[in-house]
Amino acid sequence: NMSEQIKYIIQELNKEPFNKKYNLISFDSLRSENLLQILNDVFSEVDAKLKADVRAEDPEQMVLKNLNFLRVLKYKPPDTVDMSDFRQGLVTGEKSVIYHILDWLFHRMPELKKRAYLAQYLMKVELPPDIEGDADIRDIYDQYENVIEEFKEIHKQYENLKSSGFSTQEIRKDLEHMEEERDQLIKKIERLKMKVESHPNVDAMLAVAKRLREERDLSDNLNRQKMEQRNALTHAEQKIQRLNQQLKELKLSSLGATPETLVQKLEESIKVNSYLVKDKLPKEVAAQKKFILDLQRIVSQPALSRSDLDQINNKIQEVNGEIHDFIETRMRNNNPIDDKLSLFRQQVSILAHKKERAAEELNAARIQMAEIQSQLDNKRADTKANEGEFLKGDEFKRYVNKLRGKSNIYKKKRQEMAELKTECGILSRTVDILQQKEAALTKTLAQLEMQKGVSGFHAAQDELEKVSSIKAELDEKKGQTLEEMSIMVQKLNLKIAEKKARLAPVIKELRPLRQQCQDMSFEYEQKKQTYDSCALGLESSISKLEQEVNSYKEEIAEAEHLYHTLNVKIKMLELQNERVAEEIKSYVSSDAADKKKSIREQYNRHIQEQENKTKILKEQQKEVKENQTHNEKQMQMWSNLQKLLECKKKCRELENRQSQVITSGTTDRLVL
Q1: Which of 3, 65, 381, 542 places its Cα 20 to 30 Å from the Cα of 393?
Q2: What phi and psi values does residue 53 have, to the nearest 5 degrees?
Q3: What is the spatial distance between Cα 553 and Cα 559, in angstroms, rounded to a whole number?
Q4: Burial of 100 per CB tally in 10 Å (0-12, 13-18, 19+)
Q5: What pLDDT is stored for residue 616 in this prediction?
Q6: Residues 432-469, buried b or exposed e (16+ Cβ, 10 A)?
Q7: How many CB atoms sit inside 10 A of residue 7's CB?
Q8: pLDDT tens-digit profile of 619-645?
Q9: How deeply is 102 buried, as exposed, middle or buried, from its count of CB atoms within 10 A (0-12, 13-18, 19+)?
Q10: Per-residue pLDDT tens for 415-446?
Q11: Where are the alpha helices (DSSP H) in 301-388?
């Protein structure tokens, strides 16, 4: 129902974030521009990038943008509406079209926001056919598709995490159980601290346990780094394969390439870039500056009304008509020299348009490639930033069970640690005894060296042994390094020799193929020049023939219009001739009935009737003038009589009311 649909749209527009405060009358009285602006506001609520002012946008660009966005949102027009009518309604702001779109958007707003968000990353960029075969572009596009697939997987994980509901009862039970275990562990740790503090070597044992834990953490980190390095190695091997494939393709494409061809390609690229920098870009900059100046001038001017716009449109139509007339007069006054010049001008304009179109396509391709590269870099950065694991419901339960198992292992290890601490105390006591014995023996040895006159001999001997052992280790490492380098050089020489042996027959086969490629390329250039010249001549002749056909069509249309006009005039003249012949016949005829049918007689009778009416009206006017004073007096008398009667009526009514009051004041009494 249309009324229910409009009520729902108004209700949604009056809510946040629109706050329009419409009612049925004000919303129904909106113009097409306001409806298009409301549609754009709703679009911008789905995707903020579409926020724009409809009055400042080009209508064609605006319609294309809206159609593309509706295609992204998977909107389908009603079956009763034709697609051409739908597009026209979207251009002109047709109410039925806009209402249906708004109703569809408001019923699906959260879903459409999600779809618009995903479309930014999942709508693939279409490659033009001329660059689709390029290996580098193909490689980048494959990476782009891989990034899209990774985004799909990550988004799927995110949705699963949102939809997977953890049981709060189980989580609370697990938390309570873990808190109980934590309290038990705290109590056990306190008891162990009290036991350990009484041990003589508690600091040394704690240091050993700390080093053990650090070494285990280091081992876990090294294992993780090992996995990462393996993955990096796999990616590097894949990249090497891809680069080798690109190298093969480049080698195949460079067969027969000579310095001259390379220089020629460079010159062509330099010409293209110089054309872009010197010709095309300055023109575009000047056009943009002019456009900005026009916009500034329009902004500085007061707002245009509908009448101003109509005047401007009329002026545009007049100027177009003058241009059309000028072209027609120029075509009528044909000059053979001007025809040749126009032919050459057309050829030059065609070439210039082709050149500009090619430059625009090249510039668009470069911009698109830069955008794809930036998107690829952003995707890589997002992928690196989002690295990590997400615990789901089942995984969280497994993690809790694993934590319980680790707590049991911790209890066993704690018992083993107590035994080790006991053994460590015994060993530390043994070390203390041995250190005391060593100190006593060192003191005795020093006394003996002093008695023999060789004090400090034992310390010097220990120092020399340390230096000799360090030198031996350095010599061994140096020899190993030199040996490894020599082995590596030998391997590289063998690989180079093998590659040369493999490439020698291939190079011999390539030499005749290079010459053949040069011949074919020269023949191709000649054929291409011939084709371009023929195509240019055909295009110029086609354009000239089209102009002639258009001029002939216009002449035919004018001749047909003149033909139909003359036919209508001839028919009108024939009818008038017939009426004149009948009038003459009736006028000449001696029959009185025929004369009465003639137009002259009819007009005479009508004139006589009007004259009689005029006489009667004059007599009536005369009578009115003669009796005017008498009638005015009589009228005055009647009005006075009417006033007198009204006065008597009022007096009578007043007497009646007074008599009623007096009658109502009397009362009846009974005398006993």
Answers
A1: 381
A2: -100, 120
A3: 10
A4: buried
A5: 92
A6: eeeeeeeeeeeeeeeeeeeeeeeeeeeeeeeeeeeeee
A7: 13
A8: 988 888 888 888 888 899 999 999 999
A9: buried
A10: 888 788 877 777 777 778 878 877 777 777 77
A11: 306-332, 336-385
Burial of 87 (0-12, 13-18, 19+ CB in 10 A): middle
Q: Are 587 and 598 in contact (CB under 8 A)?
A: yes
Residue type, position 561, single letter: H
Ordered by where they begin, the domains of the chain are: 1-123 (1.10.418.70)
Q: By the 8 A CB rule, do 255 and 514 touch? A: yes
Helix axes 336-385, 259-275, angle to 10 degrees: 100
Residue 671, pLDDT > 70, answer no
pLDDT value of residue 658: 83
425 Cβ neighbours under 8 A, 6+ residues apart: 199, 200, 201
Q: In this structure, what token pair is assigned to residue 186?
A: 């705290």
**Quick check: 89 and 96 in contact, CB under 8 A?**
yes
Residue of 106, 143, 103, 100 lying closest to 125 (CA atoms): 143
C-beta separation of 99 from 6 below 8 A: yes
- Is 345:540 a contact under the CB 8 Å cutoff? no
Residue 608 amino acid letter: Q
Cβ-contact 8, 103 below 8 angstroms: yes
Per-residue pLDDT tens digits for 262-282: 677 777 778 777 877 887 788
d(CA 613, CA 563): 49
Contact criterion met (CB below 8 Å) for 587 and 595: yes
Report d(CA 65, CA 60) in Å as an integer.
9
Q: What are the counts of helices (DSSP H) followed by strands (DSSP E) for the chain? A: 20, 0
- Two structure tokens written together for 54: 């409809």
d(CA 378, CA 395): 30
Contacts of 458 by beta carbon, 8 Å cutoff, 6+ apart: 445, 446, 449
**Tokens found for residue 575:** 């009818």
| pLDDT tens for each residue of 546-594 | 888 888 888 898 888 899 889 889 998 988 888 888 877 777 776 666 6
User: How far is Cα 154 from Cα 162, in angstroms, rounded to an integer?
Assistant: 12
Read off the tokens for 150: 């990774």
Q: Phi and psi (nearest 5°) for 201?
A: -115, 45
Give the residue, 608 or 121, on which the prediction is more confident: 608
Q: What does the DSSP assignment read for 514-546?
A: HHHHHHHHHHHHHHHHHHHHHHHHHHHHHHHHH
Take residue 573 and report the two structure tokens written for it. 């003249």
Backbone phi, psi, residue 334, to 5°: -70, 140
| Contacts (Cβ under 8 Å, ≥6 apart) of 20 | 10, 13, 14, 38
How many CB atoms lie under 10 A from the CB of residue 99? 18
Distance CA 584, CA 598 (A): 9
Spatial separation of the C-alpha atoms in residues 631 and 624, rounded to whole Å: 9
